[in-house]
What does this fold into?
Amino acid sequence: MIEHFHFLRPGWLLLLPLVAGLLWGIARRGDTYRKWREFLAPHLLEVLLVDRRENNPIRPVTLLAVVLTLGIVALAGPAWRQQPSPFTQDTASLIIVLKVTPSMLTEDVQPSRLERAVHKINDLLAKRAGSRAALIVYAGSAHLVMPLTRDANLIKNFAAELRPDIMPQSGDDPVAALTLAAKQLLDAKAKGSILWIGDALMLDAVKVIAAQGKRNLTALIMLGAVGLDPESKERIDLQQVASALSARLEFIAPDERDIDAIAAYVEADFTAVLEAEAGTHWQDEGYWLLFPIIALVLFWFRRGWLVKYQ
It folds into this structure.
C-alpha cells in the first residue's frame, strides 16, 4: 500500500515554503527577546523578561502551522489505493442472436437444439436479472423480436414460441442478424456483448461485426447448440471459427456450467473495457485530514487564543 503512495495534485505542495515563511515572520515579530535585546544587556534580559512559552507549550502559531500544513496536504490529494470505475456499477447489455432453422430441430440435444437453446436463454436471463437484454432471431432473414429491455419475461414469452416454420424466409443469413445486433448496441449507445446461439456459423459472416460498431461491442460469445460428441464436425467447425475471431465459445451443457461461464464472460469483458477506457482511478484520501484539522481549529474558541501578525 505504502509503495503506491502519491499525490493527485502535487502542485499544492508548492505552498508549503510560503506557509513556512509566513509562520517564521509571525514567530519573529512575536519574539519578545528580539525586541528588547538592543535595549538591555543579555544578563539583565534573562532576569527581567518572563517567557510565557515555558508555561504554555501549545502556542497558537504552532497549531496554525499544523493546520495549514494539513490543509495543503489534503488539497494535494494523497492517494495510495485505487477505486473502481463508476461505470462498473452498471451491467453489460446483452444482444442474443438465435438461429431458428430446421437444423435447430435436430434432437442430438434433448428435446431439440432449439428448445434447449431457449431453456438456456431463460436460465441466462434469470442469472442476469435486472440487466438489459435483446433478442434477435434469424433464418433466411433477421428480425428483432425484442429490443433492449430489463423485462426478462417479455423475451422468455416470445422465445418460447419460436419455430422454423414461422420464419418469413428459409435459409441461413447470420450476416443480417449480427449486423442488426451490432446496430442495437450503437443505437442504444450501450456497451455490451453479442451472444450467438446456433449449430453452424461461417467465419466470413461474423467479420461484419468489425464494420458495425465494434467500439460498443465488449465481447462476441458463441454458444454451440450441438451434440455432446467432442469429435463431431459441427463442434470442430465452431471451435475453428471462435479461434479465428478470438471469440468466447461454450457448448450447451446438461447443467449450468455453460450459463455460468457466459454470464462471467459478459460482465468481465464489460468491466475490463470500461476500466481501460476510463483509465486508472485513485481514491483521494485527503478528506481524512479534515478530522484533525477540525479538532485543531476548535482551539480558536478559547478566550485570548489568536495569532497576531502586524
Remarks:
- The radius of gyration is 35 Å.
- The domain at 86-278 is CATH 3.40.50.410 (Rossmann fold).
- The chain has eleven helices and eight strands.
- The first strand starts at residue 6 and ends at 7.
